[in-house]
Write a structure and sequence with these properties.
Largest sheet: none
Distance between the termini: 20 Å
Helix content: over 70%
Strand content: under 5%
Number of strands: 0
Shape: globular
Oligomer: single chain
Low-confidence stretches: none
Order of helices and strands: HHHHH
């Protein structure tokens, strides 16, 4: 498995969500139909900071050997985040009344990342040679 693609894709995914939650919390809250209070906007921005941190972590380690015992904490953190989020989204997807489309899209994306990071967690990494 080429983990460079996985790490890059997850970094971009995290980055988009992080930037959105950090700089557009009010607009996102309105779209989702969430209560717009100072506390909810603060929570969205703090969540965005966490996503941005994960994006930077994955982006800066995208060229490292990932899988097996190499970078195990990095893969475990990503796997835990995507697994817990996937299970939560699957549970909510069956009960959602509004924003069903975005919830289904996020459920599919999170589930795919869960499978890929799960595979990277148990697989033995292979160095991909860069022949020029």
């Amino acid at each position: 498995m080429n983990t460079k693609i996985l790490m890059t894709a997850s970094a971009v995914f995290y980055g988009i969500i992080g930037i959105g939650l950090t700089f557009l919390p009010k607009e996102i809250a309105e779209y989702l139909g969430t209560d717009i209070s100072q506390n909810s906007l603060l929570i969205f921005q703090l969540l965005g900071a966490g996503y941005w941190g994960f994006a930077m972590l994955n982006w800066m380690t995208r060229n490292s050997l990932i899988g097996g015992i190499y970078s195990r904490p990095l893969v475990a953190g990503n796997l835990a985040h995507f697994l817990i989020s996937s299970l939560t989204l699957i549970k909510i997807a069956f009960k959602a009344e509004n924003s069903v489309g975005i919830i289904l899209v996020l459920t599919i994306i999170y589930s795919a990342f869960t499978l890929f990071f799960g595979y990277a967690f148990i697989a033995n990494p292979r160095k991909i040679s860069n022949k020029e």
